[in-house]
Amino acid sequence: MSRLSKVYGVFALSLALLLNGSQLKAQDSVAAAGGGPATATPAGGGGGGDAEKGKTLFTNNCAQCHAVTEEVVVGPGLKGIQQRAPSKDWLHKWIRNSSALIAAGDPYAVQVYNKFNKIQMSNFPNLTDADIDGILAYIDQASAPATATVDGDGKAQPRGGGGASAENGGISSSPSNLFTFVLVALLVVMLLVLGVLLVIVTILSKAVTPVAAGDGTQTVAPLGQRLKEGLSGAFNNPTLRSVVIWLFLLVVAKESIDGLYSVGIQQGYAPKQPIAYSHKLHAGQYKIDCNYCHTGVNKGKSATIPAANICMNCHGVIKKESPEIQKIYAAIEQNRPIEWVRVHNLPDLAYFNHAQHVNVGNVQCQTCHGEIEKMEVVEQRSSLTMGWCIDCHRKTEVNTKDNAYYDKLVALHRKESKEPLKVANIGGLECSKCHY
Prior knowledge:
By secondary structure, the chain is mainly alpha-helical. It has 19 helices and five strands. The radius of gyration is 34 Å and the shape is elongated.
């Protein structure tokens, strides 16, 4: 018993020292870093356009067929496009209406058209000169060499150094968070095992203790008999029996209530689709914007399932031999729809409008659907229950900046509260908003 107690104390002390040591090392590493490196960013995007706006336009309109590097996707890589094209004015005409330039016999337009298998580029007549300049500025900025970071002494260092100095061979002086977590978990498990061993040793020591007889001599009853008598006494104890019965009833009641609350909830539902489509590949690796396929998300109630011709915008050229892509060809040739299995489905008694949330409320897809860009197979990540929706309405602030529609509502709200205007304050909890 005394040895086990000492071992137990040693492990507890080791756990405390490990936690304190990790905190001290973390504080030392932060102090040595001097507040972290500052990044030196360029003064602005090339081409005289708004690179930030151009990034959004490029993602929504161009990223499906072009890369900002020299990599060929469907069309050519766009690195150095302003140097390759005849002029910026020519690029404006090409992006707005490439088919007109080809039809007019423009030499460079015809050359590009023939070089890339005579694939017709989409026309974008709604883009202004400023929009196109922004896209070109973003391409120049994104394809430029990586900038350097500046350390606390004002010395430039290459980006992506891994956070370790050259003096220690690139190895961090403190253990990683994962390594520390594993050590702590192992120590906790060992402490629990030691605790169980102490209880077992205590019970066995009592079981083998000799029993004193009436004449002063000690007799030892069989171990089986003593264990039987101990269990019989525990079972006949009314207090212990009541505790066990009440615990059993509470567990049964909790499981029953949890089961009732889970009726109709499909959280974690990930059905097999007729075509193995990977969001991780398309939205994650290739950065295809959600709006490109789900065209109704900014316009109407439903985000819509993409038609087969949207798939053919790329797969008319890319991976035509893939068995999964051949299923799309077969559906088009047989003039039949692809029977996708719906994953997210609200009951008919609830009304939800994608455009209201995405276009007006600026709610990101990941808020409700989870990290869709990391899913090989789409699954329902959120519960989508009424309580989940109401909780979001209570926490989400209304974006009223530069929107005169909310001016009077904001003024009335500030008279009664100093808290920011939430969705719940503009009728987000009214039953008729979702049930009609």
